[in-house]
């Protein structure tokens, strides 16, 4: 099963150039290493990252230094293989190897699983850590307090929460699993002690981290997670997309809960299956509340990990219903063959996920000589792609995006209002002042993410006769992405 998962993910490693999030975290990781080793300044990533910048970005950057974007994506594949292994271990401990096989199989070929295995962001690492924490609590021995496992599970889950703040949505699920697996044995005080130890070693490191990180970290958690600005997608759209990606696992998980009740399994076992099934709904419901599909496919994958436990149990019950051993073998073989459908579906969905952004090859090829032969400041919409691919990207004080302007000191200005959120366009008036003063030697706009501001900037650039349009660069034409367009690049020529 791991070999199939690896093969289906590896084919996506070179499917497209870096996504904006990949470029951002890998570029930030290189700057973090430079700061640690040489004391060079770096931006206040903690103020707007949705995960601690000192955890995944340096790790991803280390892989990037060894083998480029390919190695960074393979690192994510290793994390996803670890998550599948944890799923096998957790399910087999409770429901046996046959249930574990189908649970791992259904998760391994899920479209979002295959995509995250070829996507160099913190999502794969966070999913693996949550899966490891859940596996530790589920496999706790029945006749002991399992203090060591609870300590390890709490610390691992705390690391997952620090890696990706949104993973905290699943902390209650792991907590309930720790409680349910303690009944009927050892039960009582030992069960309470398990949960208490788990909570202490989960909460304490997170509080210490916020105290050490200071206001930047606290503000980053609030802006990116707790007080996230709503999007424009309807809740129906969010739920429909989630259903298309994980509906099969959810249906099977519900069947597992029903089967457990019909077979009169222990009440705690049925509740465990119900909790795992509900976990699949947490991500979609949270994003439906915020009216956004941003990163939805990644959040669906984490809930699907839990639901796969119940789904594997459901398939196992279906096979066991054929009482004769020969009939069970035939039924099991038919279920294995039936996995061809989720394999095909997951392969096509993961390919769509992994090419769902414009290819930046042409844009980088044009920008490279322009940036390398200049020492001036640059205004680029979504600059992190260029900052990641170009050596001058390490000179981050030169680069401004259409969300804020970076001053030579490294401080920023012209950012969006607090109510607009960290991904909104900047202040048009401030950008107009800097353009009028010729602050930027190059301006590159694609009229995509911050369209309204881009048109204002383009108007201001055309009014300043020192700026000359030098390139019109089509982007996204290398792959069949739906996000194709054109970059307009102006150069500041003070002598004209």
What does this structure look like?
By secondary structure, the chain is α/β, with parallel strands linked by helices. It is 63% helix and 7% strand. The chain has helices at residues 2-10, 20-38, 56-95, 97-108, 111-116, 122-138, 147-163, 171-180, 188-213, 215-226, 235-262, 267-289, 296-320, 325-338, 340-354, 361-372, 384-389, 428-436, 451-463; strands spanning 377-380, 399-400, 405-406, 412-413, 440-445, 467-475, 485-492. The strands form 2 sheets. A 5-stranded mixed beta sheet has the order 2-1-5-7-6, sandwiched between helices. It has a two-stranded antiparallel ribbon with strand order 3-4. β3 and β4 (412-413) form a beta hairpin. The protein is elongated and about 90 Å long. The termini are far apart. The model has no long low-confidence stretch (mean pLDDT 91).
């Amino acid at each position: 099963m791991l070999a199939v998962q690896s093969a289906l993910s590896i084919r996506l490693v070179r499917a497209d150039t870096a996504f904006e999030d990949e470029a951002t975290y890998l570029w930030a990781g290189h700057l973090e290493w430079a700061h640690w080793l040489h004391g060079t300044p770096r931006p206040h990533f903690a103020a707007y990252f949705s995960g601690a910048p000192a955890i995944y970005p340096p790790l991803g950057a280390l892989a990037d230094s060894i083998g480029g974007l390919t190695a960074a994506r393979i690192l994510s594949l290793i994390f996803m293989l670890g998550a599948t292994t944890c799923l096998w271990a957790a399910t087999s401990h409770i429901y046996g190897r046959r249930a574990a096989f189908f649970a791992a199989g259904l998760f391994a070929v899920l479209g979002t699983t295959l995509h995250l295995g070829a996507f160099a962001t913190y999502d794969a690492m966070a999913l693996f850590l949550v899966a490891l924490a859940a596996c530790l609590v589920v496999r706790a021995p029945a006749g002991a307090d399992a203090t060591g496992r609870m300590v390890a599970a709490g610390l691992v889950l705390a690391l997952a929460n620090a890696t990706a703040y949104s993973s905290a949505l699943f902390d209650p699920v792991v907590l309930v699993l720790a409680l349910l697996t303690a009944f009927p044995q050892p039960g009582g005080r030992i069960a309470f002690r398990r949960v208490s130890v788990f909570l202490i070693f989960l909460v304490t490191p997170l509080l210490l981290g916020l105290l050490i990180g200071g206001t930047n970290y606290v503000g980053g958690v609030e802006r990116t997670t707790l007080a996230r600005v709503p999007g424009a997608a309807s809740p129906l759209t969010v739920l429909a997309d989630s259903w298309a990606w994980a509906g099969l696992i959810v249906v099977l998980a519900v069947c597992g809960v029903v089967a457990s009740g019909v077979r009169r399994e222990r009440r705690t076992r049925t509740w465990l299956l119900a909790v795992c099934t509900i976990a699949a709904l947490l991500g979609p419901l949270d994003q439906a509340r915020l009216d956004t599909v941003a990163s939805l496919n990644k959040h669906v994958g984490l809930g699907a990990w839990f639901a796969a436990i119940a789904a594997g149990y459901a398939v196992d019950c279906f096979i066991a219903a054929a009482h004769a051993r020969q009939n069970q073998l035939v039924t099991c073989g038919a279920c294995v063959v039936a996995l061809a459908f989720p394999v095909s579906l997951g392969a096509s969905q993961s390919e769509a996920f992994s090419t769902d952004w414009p290819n930046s090859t042409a844009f980088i090829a044009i920008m490279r000589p322009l940036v390398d032969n200049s020492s001036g400041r640059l205004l680029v919409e979504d600059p992190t792609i260029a900052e990641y691919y170009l050596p001058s990207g390490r000179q981050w004080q030169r680069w401004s995006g259409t969300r804020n302007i970076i001053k030579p000191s490294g401080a920023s200005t012209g950012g969006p209002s607090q109510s607009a959120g960290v991904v909104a366009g900047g202040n048009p008036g401030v950008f107009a002042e800097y353009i009028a003063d010729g602050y930027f030697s190059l301006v590159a706009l694609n009229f995509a993410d911050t369209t309204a501001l881009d048109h204002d900037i383009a108007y201001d650039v055309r009014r300043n006769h020192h700026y000359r349009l030098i390139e019109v660069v089509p982007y996204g034409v290398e792959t069949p992405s739906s996000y194709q367009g054109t970059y307009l690049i102006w150069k500041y020529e003070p002598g004209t």
